[in-house]
Specification:
Structural class of chain A: alpha+beta
Distance between the termini of chain A: 19 Å
Strand content of chain A: 5-15%
Helix content of chain A: 40-55%
Order of helices and strands of chain A: HHHHEEHHEEH
Oligomer: homodimer
Largest interface: A-B, 108 and 108 residues
Radius of gyration of chain A: 20 Å
């Protein structure tokens, strides 16, 4: 089944990959810096950087003619992942740190910690899980249509009995 | 280094785990239903359900005295992951499907597709990557403080030169 969530996880769903992205968001561009900051094995780092480049999330930019020295820059696709990292961080802060977050993100606009990210409708109202339902989009294939037709009340129907058996 | 993002990925950063959660959000509770809907190997499904229960994301609820028949219910911690799945889906829609999303989430409040999730400041203004900086939070340990002290301009400093080498 075609699924954007699965594709996103294929691209970034690895602990080291996410930590490399965190470092990239904090300004790191060099192999040696990633390596020193994360204490990651060099072969693992090479592999993850190559994968991130293959997914178009980082771009390898040669600094010398032979390409021996290089930097890894976030692409627009990669930079757009900051929303994903922020919501992962907020979930981790809330549920794995007993309310004592190790890092706070401060907005430059007003100097305050950023707000909790919320799912909102097109009018800006925050939505709970029960207030959404999935429907086939323009890119839905037959398998997706079949699966969605079996979703009892749409997204959030977990409070109903399981009718898919 | 203590990191909420890494802990979140440890809990859910696996393709099957995320697909199991997607099914749970769509109302699936039984082992056989997860198995049929995902076409996942039974031993892999058992392993992932056990891990999700160990992380307190799903709760195993026995339906029969011996516990042979059971359902897997989302806990509050698990239900709160819907924000993470929505932002992953939106990123995947935008960057891996050429603008043809297979699934659309419709808000029950107004019948329209939900909005793109955004990082916002405490006044509700949407923030770009460059408009945030990280600082140590109440749960920061020494390693976190050292790492953050080395972030040149805070989050989004990727456009500056790499000073961490």
């Amino acid at each position: 089944m075609s699924c954007s969530v699965a594709r996103a996880v294929d691209a970034i769903g690895d602990r080291w990959t996410v930590l490399i992205l965190r470092e990239a968001f904090w300004g790191v561009r060099r192999f040696e810096s990633f390596q020193a900051n994360l204490g990651i094995a060099r072969n693992v780092l090479s592999d993850r950087l190559r994968r991130l480049a293959a997914h178009g999330i980082l771009e390898r930019v040669s600094l010398t003619p032979g390409g021996k020295r290089a930097e890894y820059h976030l692409t627009r696709k990669g930079a757009d992942l900051f929303r994903v990292l922020v919501v992962l961080m907020q979930w981790g802060d809330r549920w794995t740190h007993d309310g004592e977050p190790p890092v706070r993100l401060i907005a430059r606009t007003n100097g305050e910690p950023i707000a909790e990210m919320a799912v909102r409708d097109s009018d800006g109202r925050a939505l709970g899980l029960m207030e959404m339902r999935p429907e086939p989009g323009p890119g839905a294939n037959d398998a997706t249509r079949r699966r969605l037709a079996a979703v009892p009340g749409g997204a959030g129907s977990r409070y109903q009995s399981d009718r898919s058996t």
